[in-house]
């Protein structure tokens, strides 16, 4: 059935048709080239943005919400409005036990502390944390380790320093792990150095110490500053946030309609907005690219109609010599598909060069805006299939036009 594709005469006719009107053929192919270039370039750029976003948030449990206490705005059960709400460890425990869909609840505390080492000192934000924090907000350790359960159980005076804090307290390339620093006049052993992330969820943190040690130093007892709540992937984090606030209101005797008693930041909701934007961008890219491809393919169809008009006498001679209508149609469709595919392949190659340029210009370093801008082989294959289908469909129009003329009338054509 496809033997004609390997017939030398078939491709000789394609070449002759192309070479007779080189400029016109090239200009016609520009539309398809531009459409596939847009498709590859925009899809690759969208993938690069998605990769950058995933790298930025890859260490976070994105289906999370942060909740902290503020001031009440309504009187309730004998309490006046304006009462400051303080969360506790027991609140965190009851949230974890009673709110459906929760995977982790991480209580946290934070305060500013003065740190001294030899003749160097500074004021830094210090957080009291559990080892669980490293699972939901992974720390990129440069040296050492994170807080472990023994640190919690034994109220150890150990500390992790951020890279920036380390640079302020230690000389360049000086060993820090195993050394001691003074925090609020108490000696703490440095157990790790972590890299400052591009994104901080919650208040910025320069140092981490065991949660129990923090509570002991600042005499916080059961009180916590805020809690980070992570939901299971299949649960709606917005519903978890609403259920958590309602439970906390009941536990702390706060009016059910008080909207100011608790503050929150829903990372899952913000994350879904960004992923929705990226999905919309990819959809728009496919729409614009395919629409441009269709416009370009129609241009090829119009040019082939003109070519058929110019070749009317030639077609008449071929019909008179015994060529069937199917053979005439087949030849014109092959020319349409060839022009479409040639323009598409050039567009794919050009789009690839553009993506390589984008990656070279914007994809290097930790703060890269576009990371590994690329398209998959599957996308390239789908684009080529679309080109073949569109080329075939648009080639049928001039093909039917060519066979609609009777041979005797075609021979009379001047």
TrEMBL record:
Residues 25-243 form the MacB-like periplasmic core domain. It comes from Flavivirga amylovorans. Keywords: Cell membrane, Membrane, Transmembrane, Transmembrane helix. The chain crosses the membrane at residues 26-46, 283-308, 336-356, 368-397. Pfam families: FtsX, MacB_PCD. It is a multi-pass membrane protein. Belongs to the ABC-4 integral membrane protein family. It comes from the Bacteria. This is ABC transporter permease. It is found in: Cell membrane. PANTHER family: ABC TRANSPORTER PERMEASE YTRF, MEMBRANE COMPONENT OF TRANSPORTER-RELATED. Residues 287-407 form the ABC3 transporter permease C-terminal domain.
């Amino acid at each position: 059935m496809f033997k004609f594709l390997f017939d030398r005469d078939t491709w000789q006719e394609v070449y002759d048709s192309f070479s007779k009107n080189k400029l016109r053929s090239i200009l016609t192919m520009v539309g398809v080239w531009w459409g596939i270039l847009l498709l590859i370039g925009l899809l690759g750029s969208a993938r690069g943005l998605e990769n950058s976003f995933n790298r930025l948030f890859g260490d976070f449990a994105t289906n999370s919400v942060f909740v902290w206490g503020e001031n009440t705005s309504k009187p309730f059960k004998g309490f006046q409005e304006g009462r400051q709400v303080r969360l506790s460890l027991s609140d965190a425990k009851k949230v974890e036990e009673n709110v459906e869909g929760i995977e982790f609840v991480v209580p946290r505390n934070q305060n500013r502390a003065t740190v001294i080492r030899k003749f160097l000192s500074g004021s830094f934000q210090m957080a009291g944390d559990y080892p669980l924090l490293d699972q939901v907000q992974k720390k990129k350790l440069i040296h050492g380790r994170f807080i472990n359960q023994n640190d919690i159980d034994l109220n150890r005076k150990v500390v992790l320093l951020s890279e920036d804090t380390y640079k302020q307290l230690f000389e360049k390339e000086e060993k820090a792990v195993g050394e001691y620093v003074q925090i609020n006049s108490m000696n703490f052993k440095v157990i790790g150095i972590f890299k400052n992330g591009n994104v901080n969820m919650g208040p910025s943190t320069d140092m981490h110490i065991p949660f129990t040690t923090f509570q002991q130093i600042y005499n916080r007892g059961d009180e916590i500053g805020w809690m980070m709540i992570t939901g299971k992937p299949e649960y709606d984090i917005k519903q978890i946030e609403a259920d958590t606030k309602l439970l906390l209101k009941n536990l702390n005797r706060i009016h059910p309609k008080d909207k100011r008693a608790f503050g929150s930041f829903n990372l899952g909701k913000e994350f879904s907005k960004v992923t929705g934007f990226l999905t919309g961008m990819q959809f728009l890219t496919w729409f614009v690219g395919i629409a441009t491809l269709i416009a370009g393919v129609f241009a090829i169809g119009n040019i082939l109609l003109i070519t058929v008009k110019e070749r009317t006498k030639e077609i008449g001679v071929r019909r008179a010599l015994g060529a069937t209508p199917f053979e005439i149609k087949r030849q014109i469709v092959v020319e349409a598909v060839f022009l479409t595919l040639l323009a598409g392949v050039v567009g794919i190659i050009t789009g690839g060069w553009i993506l390589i340029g984008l990656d070279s210009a914007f994809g290097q370093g930790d703060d890269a805006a576009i990371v590994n801008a690329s398209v998959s082989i599957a996308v390239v294959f789908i684009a080529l299939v679309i080109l073949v289908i569109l080329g075939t469909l648009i080639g049928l129009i001039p093909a039917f036009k060519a066979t609609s003329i009777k041979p005797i009338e075609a021979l009379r054509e001047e």
